[in-house]
Amino acid sequence: MKKQFIVIGLGRFGSSICKELFKLGHDVLAIDSSPERVEMMRNFSSHAAVANATDEASMRDLGVRNFEHAVVAIGENMQTSVLCTLMLKEIGIPLVWVKAKDLQHQMILEKVGADRVIQPEKEMGIRIAHHMDSEKVVDY
Ligand code: ATP
């Protein structure tokens, strides 16, 4: 079933999520403050827009409140990611998933209402370790 997603922050993590969701046939609204990043996502999203993710008026103008699920993929600037998450929850987006850079960031995001917090490097490290564990070791 086709769903509607917003991806905010189009770095390596956000752009990869955006492209994959779009490839899977979903509607994706891609947002970044950098015009170059937005341009790069033009053909890999339903709509790509330049906006400051902490500016509530711009976000409302983009119609974010009609979306069911948002991903905030701004890892480095903790203040921006926290403010954006808080605002999306205040606007009423049911599912807000957010990238965190560390445990402190994660705890703050959970306090402001993030529905899922992701630490990509940590989660991928765990998955890779399990994958390595399950590989057959060939002893020469
Ligand atoms: P990566 O996924 O590449 O590891 P990152 O977690 O290091 O990225 P940043 O590089 O800090 O995260 O930001 C990711 C994207 O978010 C960048 O493209 C940046 O332009 C965008 N961004 C940062 N601040 C804002 C903002 N206030 N509004 C919209 N986009 C923003």
Automatic annotation (TrEMBL):
Gene Ontology molecular function: any one: monoatomic cation transmembrane transporter activity
Domain RCK N-terminal intervals: 2-118
GO biological process: potassium ion transport
Protein name per the record: TrkA family potassium uptake protein
Shown part of the complete sequence: 1 to 140 of 218
